[in-house]
Amino acid sequence: MSLTTESSTNFWLTRPFSERSTQIFLGVLLAALALVTILHVVVPPSNPLHVGAYTVNLFGKYLSYALLAVAVDLVWGYLGILSLGHGAFFAIGGYAMGMYLMRQIGERGTYGHPVLPDFMVFLNWDSLPWYWLGFDMAWFAFAMVLIAPGLLALVFGFLAFRSRVTGVYLSIITQALTFALMLAFFRNEMGFGGNNGLTDFRELLGYNLRSNDTRLGLFLATGVALGLGYILCRAIVTSKLGRVSIATRDAEARTRFLGYRVERFQLFVFVVSAMLAGLAGALYVPQVGIINPSEFSPIFSIEIVLWVALGGRATLYGAVIGAILVNYAKTIFTGVMPDAWLFALGAMFVLVTVFLPKGVAGLFHYLKRRKRDDTANNDPNADPTSKEASA
Amino acid sequence: MRRFLSLALLCFLLLGITLTAQAQSTDAASNPTNDAAALELLEALDVESYTAKGEAITAILQSDDERARDWLQALLDGRLQRTDNGRFVLVLENRGRDWPVADVLTGEALGEMSRRDLERVGINNNLRNQLRSAIAVVDLYSPNVERRRTSAERLLGEVDGELVQPINDLIEQEEDDQVRYRLTQAVAIYRAEAGEMAGVEALDGSLHPRSRVALSRAVNGDDPVIANAAAASLAGIEQQLKINRGLETLYFGLSLGSVLVLAAIGLAITFGVMGVINMAHGELMMLGAYTTWAMQQLLPGQPGLALILSIPAGFMVAALAGVAIERGVIQFLKGRPLETLLATFGISLILQQLVRTVISPLNRTVITPEWMSGSLVVNDALSLTLNRMYVLGFALVVFAGLMLIMRRTRLGLEVRAVTQNRAMARSMGIRATRVDIMTFALGSGVAGLAGVALSQLTNVGPNLGQNYIIDSFMVVVFGGVGNLWGTLVAGLSLGVINQVLEPWAGAVLAKIIVLVFIILFIQKRPRGLFPQKGRAAEG
């Protein structure tokens, strides 16, 4: 154990691999990806164990939500910033991807215009707005998936952190940000399809989005992105920078007095988180086949926070668990009794904050500790140091 | 149109004072001889030829029968019908298969008749025009002032050479100032359009759109003196209009602002004292609005009384709900403002869904009582809607009341002490928990009051609160926490800014600009317009 720690501490990005939690997380993730792939490809459709294309697609959606939750946990769990506007970064990443996919439709749209997407033809526009230029090139669009949300986070974060806006003020301002963006994107004049958003996508990098193989590919790609995003976040929080940001979370003024430029650390982490959220959005859009302004709605952003809170704040893997649990529950509920979903969601908010402040992950820890304490009590001769080693 | 008008008016001129005197006597005496004559007049209407019908209409106009207007109106609407046995009836409501009818002559209700037994007295477009003009002037002789007013207003721009003299005569007899003013204007418009100096002079300062049309025609006239005078008046009028438009924007802005103040002020109190953001604040407003609706359901036919009663009721309902939220959830989350935010958000979802499930997902209609509807007409270009004025006044009263509570009562003193320094206040013997509950009740109650006021301005639905929550937070952030004056100034100014921006930016963009403005504003002043001073500021 100590040997691996020695060898990997040299490089910050590989450090997470030496952590037990990361190893378990990556192991579970890989196993899940492999299992779903096998059940989808190898097991014949007649077998009850077969995982259909619809389910693969659904899992892919959950994984992109999980990546988003990881991004939120990075800022909330390790920086103490409760962002109620991460849906905005998610949606912007999604729109960047959506714009690329729109351009890929080409002449196959309803109006058959070679360049303009259908909704622009419908609005009688004669040319592409400048911000749509370049989105026919995949590399440019994929770069924008990260750059656009990153840039927004940079500007917003710079303004907010510089003037030391923190706590509930910051939360409300982030909520106002996503609310303002939602209103803006609802406008047809913005050139993002207004109310309907962007939809009717056909292919991504030449692969037909409606084929099952592409769906499986997207699912796997999302899984890989989640793994990489997780490692990146883990690496950040275990680095020195991460320690400063945790210090900022716990005592901002004290950290500042120690000589750290708190706002720079905050800004860095915030921008990274926004980019991850953008990536999640970009992976989400081709899987659901639509992006519209409702992703900007404040309620969605606040739901993301619930995923993290439910899973367990400041654990990262808790965020993943929370995102998958809540969304699975949502799928079930909205299918069986749609009216009850908001009751359930509201109750979850209340119950989690009041009774489960550390989330499901905290529950794990609690159970683990109790078990350990039990064994320690049952075996008075046990060596206390061995307890430490096992932990 | 004009031709008919002058024709009709000339008819009246012939009849002269007699008719006026007759019309102003309110008792509609229907004696047998009168009825016989009236029946004859009506019989004349039921002929094949439209020319003959036109003459019959003129005859009815010339008759001094008090009921002429109703007949003509009914004829115009196609409600003047004849039964199988040749009786003339008025159809009161032509819907369904059986129509309720009334006797034309006596006005007595005759019950329902099958539509198949009735035959309409038909008219064509020409007659329709003639009837409309005739009815317009008929009203000028009506004993009812309201009718004379509307009729006079309809005359603006419809006067021609033949009408000037009769109208001038009418002006001399008229007792009501408003009718006289309108008639003078109507003549002046005719004169100005004809290029007469008197007309241009008389129109100076008139804000009616028709007057402006007349003046701009006079500007293009041949006589340079008159054209110049007209241009000068026109410029003056434009200036006046601009001022009036500005006043209107200000009024709408203040009205929107007063709503924001009402919505935000309760929030400001709870946030100031407890450092807690209550995301369910909007839903407490919604409860207040639904209380108004429920009150009106309980007291059908008395919307005004119900509204007044729902002020205390809305306060109590929201305050109780607030206390329940505080005791049930918030007290367990002391010192964790972000978690409180999430928990109260959950409560807001539950409340919304509760209303959707229990009452209805659709909007409910809350009736505006009579004394609150309508508008205060200042001049031709500016009229202020009464309901907004009441809400503005209500907001100010609530504000004053809260101010009084904060400054003059024991509770206010304790609230201020806890806001400034919780630990110190507690060590001085203030029971902070009790203050928390009281403040939360007060803040929530004010939210309920806001809901009662809002029910008069917007739709009452499950999403009512959601639409205001972000705006109210912006007001609190903008105004500074723990300062009621800050909330008032911030709310009113944000409302006005929003309304000023709206004409050239559009409603949505205006909202976005305001949000961006606030985000930038707290760069400069992170603690709002009126920050708290002293140690309390370090939180």
TrEMBL record, chain A:
Keyword set, alphabetical order: Cell membrane, Membrane, Transmembrane, Transmembrane helix
Transmembrane segments: 24-42, 62-95, 139-161, 168-186, 216-237, 265-284, 304-328, 340-367
Domain of life of the organism encoding this protein: Bacteria
Subcellular localization, as worded in the UniProt entry: Cell inner membrane
One MF annotation (Gene Ontology) recorded for this entry: branched-chain amino acid transmembrane transporter activity
Coiled coil: none
InterPro entries: ABC_transp_permease, ABC_transptr_urea_perm_UrtC, LivM-like
Pfam families: BPD_transp_2
Membrane topology: Multi-pass membrane protein
CDD domains, per the entry: TM_PBP1_LivM_like
Major location category of this protein: membrane
PANTHER family: HIGH-AFFINITY BRANCHED-CHAIN AMINO ACID TRANSPORT SYSTEM PERMEASE, SLR1201 PROTEIN
NCBIfam families to which the protein is assigned, alphabetical: urea_trans_UrtC
Stated name of the protein: High-affinity branched-chain amino acid transport system permease protein livM
Gene that produces this protein: urtC
From TrEMBL, chain B:
Recorded family membership: Belongs to the binding-protein-dependent transport system permease family. LivHM subfamily.
Pfam hit, one: BPD_transp_2
GO biological process entries: amino acid transport
Major location category of this protein: membrane
Stated name of the protein: Branched-chain amino acid ABC transporter permease
Organism: Vreelandella boliviensis LC1
Localization of this protein: Cell inner membrane
Signal peptide bounds: 1-23
NCBIfam families in the cross-refs: urea_trans_UrtB
Molecular function (Gene Ontology), one example: transmembrane transporter activity
